[in-house]
Amino acid sequence: MYRVLLADDEADVREGLLTEIDWEACGFSVAGTAENGLEALELAERLLPDVVLTDIRMPFIDGLELVKRLQTELPLARTVILTGYDEFDYARQAVSLNVDEYLLKPFTAASLTELLIGLKEKMDRERAEREDAHKLREHYRLSQPQLQAQFLSSLLYRQYDKDQIRSRADQYGLSLDGEGCSVSVVRLDSPDGELAQGAERTDEAASSGSLSRSSDVELRLFAVFNVAEEIWANRKERLAFLHQDNIVLMDFGVGEDGWRERCQATLEHLARSVGFYLRMDVTIGTGLPKANLSGIKEAYEEALLALDYRLVPGMDRLIFLQDLERRQSAPLRFDELKEQSLSRCLKVGTAEELSELLGTIFGEIGEGHSYSAIQLYLMEVLTSVCRTAQSAEVELEELLGTGAGPYAELARQNGFAEARRWLEKLCSDLMTRIAGTRQHAYKDLVEEAIRFTRSRLHDPDLSIPVVCSHLHISTGYFCSLFKREVKLTFLQYVMQLRMELAQELLRTTELKAFEIAERIGFSEPNYFSFCFKKHTGATPKEYRSRWKEAEAGAQP
User: Which of 18, 64, 156, 220 has the fewest Cβ atoms nearer than 10 Å?
Assistant: First the structure.
């Protein structure tokens, strides 16, 4: 159902349009009506109609001027011009304005219905072209492998939480089954490097121009990738893709029984196959297995670290970091994802969210972690808190009230339990201070907008963009903030101020209506009178007369 705004200065025409046209059957609903061009413009800005049907001759601004302004402020709105025979030449200007349709008066309900049905069909076709599901699916199908590789590559250098990863994976047609994950990296050895000895290779193979002697690195990489994809990605919980000069292998079956043995056997098969079929040597590094998908970035970094061990004499070509760096507990890392979550929670979260998040952050610390590892981890948490306070322009020293810096205060705490309580209180106090500061900033911004508006009330060009330019903020943010704080839209507030000032001037001065209109920012005196009557129920002259009569009656 498309929304339509009707604009005509004749009340019987507006009434006829409302009652004689079956708008719903035509695919439209009437969002509002206006009796002049300025009112139509204001309603259009507020109602955001799909179609504006307007008379060409109206008070204050005519239909053509309305169309010009709508093309700037609501460029997607369709416009239909209504005009009489004597105005036809004038109406032809509408062609240069790209008006969608025009209809000559007097017109019948049938002719307007026919026009509306045709307009709806045209709008439906254009919408269908933009949203053609078949074309979109086909385009997406052709682009999907590239999009999948880009998404998987992004997981290696940006950290997301597991829900974000699953949601985006679903969008790209990837099924990341299982809670755990591991990452392996396959790196090609130089054809004549220190690890590529290949004693069993024959002179015949070397003279045949085998890929291992090729200078085309990309071709060699792609050849190995084909083997890796065939051998590794033959299970639904595994993925293989190219990333820079490496082949990345992901496994999402970490939690299954026998995962390590199965993973190692497959990687050994892959390395042997590359050597046998392509006459190449590869080294494969595998990071520590992770409990959930958010550990992909860390697992990739560990796989690269495992590859560094290939320089150690006697090291095998298949390297599991788990075998080289056995730990009682997983390493403590206050990573990018935890830092982002803490900063967001301190700025806009709730007390319940903060308590849950801190429980997760401190829950990472286990009995197997050394004192120095725990101390470093807590320092990283505190550093994140300090950064958040700095970005919110909050002085932590002032918040602490001890005269010492936050790091010195952390060092004073006796043991992990005391340090945790101290950090939790600091986070809670900082969250409260940021919320209070933000609310104060909101009020300051709105108060400045009100001061500026009152000082420019006489200016007919006063508008939301003018105020936002003064405040250096976006119009969308301003409109939302202003309505939340003032409980009125900005345009409603300005109109209320102007009407209140107009009433005061009518009561306390002998200024004429056109002089008052000029003083309160109306360039059209007639439009001022129209708005005044709509607001108060009386014309300016009637209002002044009633006020004087009431004053005279009140005197003894």
Answer: 18
Q: What count of other Cβ atoms lies within 10 Å of the Cβ of residue 204?
A: 8
243, β-bridge pairs: 246
Looking up tokens 């969008």, which residue turns up? 171
357's enclosing H/E stretch is helix 351-363
State which fold the 2-130 domain adopts.
Rossmann fold (3.40.50)
Report whether 255 contacts 180 (CB < 8 A). Answer: yes
Name the CATH architecture for the domain at 456-554: Orthogonal Bundle (1.10)
Residue with tokens 């990605």: 233
pTM: 0.46
Question: Do the bridges between strand 51-55 and strand 2-7 make them parallel or antiparallel, or are there none, so unpaired?
Answer: parallel
CB atoms within 10 A of CB 388: 22
Residue type, 306: A
Cis geometry, peptide bond prior to residue 49 (ω within 30 degrees of 0)? no
Q: Cβ distance 251 to 164 under 8 Å?
A: no
Could you say which DSSP state residue 29 is in?
A: E
CA 244, 245, 247 angle in degrees (round to 5)? 90
**Domain residue ranges of the chain, discontinuous segments joined by +:** 2-130, 151-324, 336-439, 456-554
**Superfamily of domain covering 151-324:** Reverse transcriptase/Diguanylate cyclase domain (3.30.70.270)
Residues 247 and 224 sit within 8 Å (Cβ to Cβ): yes
Residue 411 contacts by C-beta under 8 Å, 6 or more apart in sequence? none
Q: Where are the alpha helices (DSSP H) in 158-258?
A: 162-171, 203-207, 217-232
Span 377-422, pLDDT tens digits: 899 999 999 999 998 888 888 888 777 788 888 888 887 888 899 9
Summarize pLDDT for 183-202 with one digit per residue, the tens. 999 998 865 444 333 333 44
**Amino acid symbol at 254:** V
Give the pairing of strands 246-251 and 318-320. unpaired
